[in-house]
Design goal:
This protein is of the alpha+beta class. Helices cover 34% and strands 13% of the residues. The protein is built from 9 helices and 9 strands. The strands form 2 sheets. Strands 3, 4, 5, 6, 7 and 9 form a 6-stranded mixed β-sheet that branches. A 3-stranded antiparallel β-sheet has the order 1-2-8. The longest helix has 17 residues. It is globular, with a radius of gyration of 21 Å.
């Protein structure tokens, strides 16, 4: 039996996957494929995404950026075939390959970037340019007029390899995603819990002991394959158990833990609840 010839979009996706770039098909209008009936409105529990953390056994490219893969067997599977037949473009998950895309949507945004950001690899887009940096961060839309940031938990349309030398992700780009608090209400992404007052005897022989503990907790949260709610609570509990009574734990340390959790899709409310529950369990 003659095998069907892969579409141009599928061939492009397989080529990118071979380079280690996780890809997915986009429908007309540059949007991801919609949920299937089983996964409608993420009733299945979802794959790791902004709204519904958790695994999903669905074989279709059904969950936006979280469906991106480098597995050629998945890309060429029967479950993905209908999506490739509908596909109008190929997208990739920048954060999944260690990159951040600054999406400049018009000439004014490009002019701003040329004046304020270090030069890096650029790719022409329909209306502007993609500036690609080496490094990952939290994605954010509309960080300024005509500028979006696409990295973790986001996808970008594949428009070609681009030109120029890729530069390390600068602080100037990271700062764009930080929301400044207003007088009327605090930024919703701000950590609202406090560090324990301490007062106990400090067992740390050096600041490196605390740093290792925080870094290890961040890594465990970032690498958790599933059960992110449980992992976040366990890591918060472990950090508080080891460092919560001596006064060494600061708001900066807590902020790092919250950032790691929110990067994996946890809401600020879930982080605050997990922190409070961990303190309660330890009698703090």
């Amino acid at each position: 039996m003659t095998q069907p010839t892969p579409s141009a979009h599928l061939r492009a996706a397989l080529n990118l996957a071979e380079q280690g770039i996780p890809v997915l098909p986009l429908r007309e209008g540059k949007g991801p494929m919609g949920n299937c009936r089983t996964c409608r409105k993420n009733a299945c529990g979802g794959r790791p995404n902004m709204k519904t953390p958790g695994p999903c056994a669905c074989a279709a490219p059904c969950h936006g950026w979280a469906a991106a893969t480098t597995d050629p067997h998945v890309l060429t599977s029967a479950a993905w075939a209908p999506a490739w037949r509908q596909a109008a473009a190929v997208a990739y998950h920048p954060g999944g390959t260690g990159l951040t895309v600054v999406d400049l949507d018009n000439a004014n945004a490009i002019a701003w970037a040329r004046h304020n950001l270090p030069a890096t690899r650029t790719v022409p887009s329909t209306r502007g340019e993609h500036w690609i940096y080496l490094g990952i961060m939290t994605s954010a839309n509309a960080v300024r007029p005509g500028v979006d940031i696409k990295s973790l938990m986001s996808y970008a349309r594949w428009l070609g390899p681009g030109t120029g030398t890729m530069t390390a992700l600068p602080d100037a780009v990271r700062a764009l995603a930080v929301k400044e608090p207003t007088a009327a209400r605090p930024a919703t992404s701000a950590t609202t819990v406090s560090a324990p007052a301490g007062g106990g005897q400090c067992p740390h022989r050096s600041p490196a002991y605390l740093e290792r503990g925080i870094s290890m907790a961040e890594q465990r949260i970032e690498e958790a394959p599933d059960g992110i709610h449980r992992t976040v609570f366990r890591m918060f509990l472990a950090v508080l158990s080891a460092h919560g009574r001596c006064g060494c734990l600061t708001e900066t340390h807590i902020g790092r833990l919250f950032t790691a959790a929110q990067t994996r899709g946890e809401s600020l409310r879930h982080c605050e609840d997990a922190w409070t529950n961990a303190r309660t369990q330890l009698g703090m």
